Amino acid sequence: MAAKKILMLVGDYVEDYEVMVPFQALLMVGHIVHAVCPDKSAGETVRTAIHDFEGDQTYSEKPGHLFALNADFAQVEAADYDALLVPGGRAPEYLRLNEKVLRLVRAFDQAGKPIAAVCHGAQLLAAAGILAGRECSAYPACAPEVRLAGGSFIDIPVTHSHVQGNLVTAPAWPAHPSWLAGFLGLLGTTITL
């Protein structure tokens, strides 16, 4: 299997686990991952937030780690990558206001390239207009946005993921094993024991 080149769209207050775990796991299996953020360059960092499920009506939020970017957003073109990964947290809320971010999401989808989005990452998919007639899981608070974008919200346990076509989505970081396995399947990555 040849290494795939994956673009990861991040921003300040991206969810800590949803950026750290996939970034490291995809590198571990031999893929190339470029983490980028609008208006930032390789070597700069974004702040992360830890969203935890502690029995309240919604998640709690705590400061996370600094996450180092390893590529320049200004130089990114969808044609240079095999797949797209969109972590959740608070970042998608404002990243969806960036027209280049939305163009990138659309370009990956129009090319039929694998797209993995978790938690609030669905906000980027909805804003980019790629959910019409499609199924998408996300953090339940994003269900109205998925539906308003013409998608069908898939309400699944927090440890599960959903694959439809080139899209793999999940409610939150507890789904990492299922979500990343689905993404690796879309990438054609096989792991043998």
Describe the structure.
Its EC number is 4.4.1.5. This is Protein DJ-1 homolog D. InterPro entries: C56_PfpI-like (IPR006286), Class_I_gatase-like (IPR029062), DJ-1/PfpI (IPR002818). This protein is of the alpha/beta class. The protein has a single domain (5-187), classed as Rossmann fold (3-Layer(aba) Sandwich), CATH 3.40.50.880. The chain is 28% helix and 25% strand. It contains 6 helices and 11 strands. The protein has helices at residues 16-28, 91-95, 99-110, 122-128, 143-148, 176-187; strands at 5-9, 14-15, 32-36, 45-52, 60-68, 83-86, 115-118, 135-136, 152-153, 162-164, 167-170. A 6-stranded mixed β-sheet has the order 3-1-6-7-11-10, with helices on both faces. The longest helix is centred in the first third of the chain and has 13 residues, at 16-28. The mean pLDDT is 97.
